[in-house]
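Reminder: ligand-aware prediction takes two inputs, not one.
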Amino acid sequence: MPMLDHPAMLLGAFPDLQVEPEEARSILRPQKDERYGFGYALSPYRGCGHGCAYCYVRDYPHPLHGPDGWGRWSSPKVNAPELLWAQRHKLHGQRVFLASATDPYQPLEREFRLTRACLDVLLQCPTTRVILHTRSPLVLQDLDRLKAFGARLSVGLSIPTDDDTVRQIVEPKAPPIPSRWAAAERLSREGIQVGISVAPLMAMVDPQAFARRARESGARSAWVGGLRLLSADPFYRVLAHHGWLKVLDHEYQAEVRAVLKAAFPPASSRKQEARTPAPKPRLRITEPHHPPLFEGA
Ligand code: SF4
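Here is what comes back for the chain with iron/sulfur cluster:
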């Protein structure tokens, strides 16, 4: 259950984050846009301690921190599991996506365990499909829960670049890239469906090697989402300063997308492969079910 006795512990554990626990009024947000492919978004937190510089909700208004405070505050919805339990009748046959506009395994989850408690509720909903999306190997702390879902759960690991020096600039508070690969490998080894989300695509050193790495991780799918950005956006200046404006180039995005597509061929090609007497494929590859948060995803 979530820890409500928090202030002193949190000041020490998260010195660069203002933690603002709150009682949410609702927890399931219906998704009516067909493109998203899921029924409800479930966010156990408001705000995100990862504070990615390109985050699509970084302008989220906050009375204290204003538009520049993204990544410096987070509000755990301490009653999220109870709300979800009360609303579980909505979930029959539905898909639930964790999480929208926040990372369900941001650092606070180590203490609050709200995502974990919500998973416990979802485990009681046997016809509900669960889609987790994260940038953090903290997801491994719930390995037992994730495995208990079997085929009705998938995890998307967001790995937007192969270069951790790029990550340090665009996602300075999110976990290092190698730790995400390690998480993808561990989850795959444990039989969990993993997808690699290259979204939003950042500068890459070697897309071919990245695609091989994705394949070797045991992931069953990978996809690319291109960043959409106005030139007036502060992140545009970051990209320009580092010589990374190519990430906005549709040709560059298409090039990386093609490399990943070749590494994870579509279902029709896989059927053709299956008809040949070649050794049995080690993995059954499925199309990604993750929502496209960025263009082209
Ligand atoms: S992890 Fe996701 S929600 Fe959190 S700051 Fe980064 S892009 Fe935004």
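The mean pLDDT is 87. The chain has two domains: 1-134, 157-172+182-297. We will return to this case in the review session.
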